[in-house]
Structures are given as C-alpha cells and as structure tokens.
Amino acid sequence: MDKKEILRYLRTNSGVEDEMLLKLIDDTIRQVERTANPKSIYRIFNCTVTENALIIDNVEFKSKRLAENLKGCKKVAILAATAGTECDRLLRASSFEGARLVVMQAVLAAKIEEICDALQESIETENNVKTRSRFSPGYYDLDISEQKKLFSLLEITKRCGITLTDTYQMIPTKSVTAFTGIDYED
Question: Most CB within 10 Å of its CB: which of 6, 33, 100, 107?
Fold first, then answer.
C-alpha cells in the first residue's frame, strides 16, 4: 500500500519522521492486508449523456457535474468494490484507541482506493479502453440517493455482498460505487 497516500489521508507531511506514527502505520497496513477480503464488480453500459444527466437503460442520473465528466462518452462503466466486512470489525476494535482509529481509517481509505484503482485497470485491460476519473453518488450534485439505482443496475448486494441502508450508506463501510467514462483506443 502507498504510505504517501496514507499520510495524505492523515493530513500530514509525506516526509514525517515520527517513528511511533510510522510503526503504527506499518502495523496497521499488515493488519489490513491480512484481514481485507476485497470484492468487486463492474459492467459496461451504453449511455446517453445530456447537458445535465446520464441515462442508462432508461434510468436517469441527474447531475450536471457527472454529465460534464462523461461528455462525449457513448459507454460508461459502473463499478462497485469493497474491502470486506472484516475491515469494519477492525474499525470497531480500533475505536477504543484514538490514534489507532485515525490510522486505521486512513489505511482503509487507501486500501479501498487501491482496490478501485486495480478494478479500473482491469476494465481498461480487459476491454482495451481508457477510463475517466471515477465519479460517485454523494459527490457534487449527484445525490447520494442515486445509489439505489446503481445497486439495481448491477445487483451489487447479490454479487458483492454490499448492502445499502435507508440513508444510502453502504455496509461494509469501506465500499465504493462509481461511474467511469469509457474512451476507446484509436
């Protein structure tokens, strides 16, 4: 895992020399690597992008920012990924120790990003395409409630074990859903 990324999540300098912090990060990385049980899924859809919406199979996602991100795309990948329920247990176990909890949050955030990056690489390799930056419900003007539509299109609960609460939060908590535009190689 990328220690610089973890330090960024901790909002500290990548040149930090605090031996106790670095040891805690290393210990936490080892614990997460032993415990994480990543699962992911993606599917590529034909789409229509309007000035302020993305339309997939007659399902509309209203967001001007998402439409800007996907401008020119005729296809979009929807992806879902999780670090697994075991990582939620690590978070709960760390909740009694302030410093360990903060480091655990940072390491797990870096872990789910690593999983998503690997999934995006797989999409590119398997389909000989380039993908755009990920865009998730809850960012900018794409309402978090749009999660429900994503879950329906991908059958995320059935395929990855990620569930959605009444307030559209995902369980396990270290889970991500996102859109990524597809650009074909020339």
Answer: 107
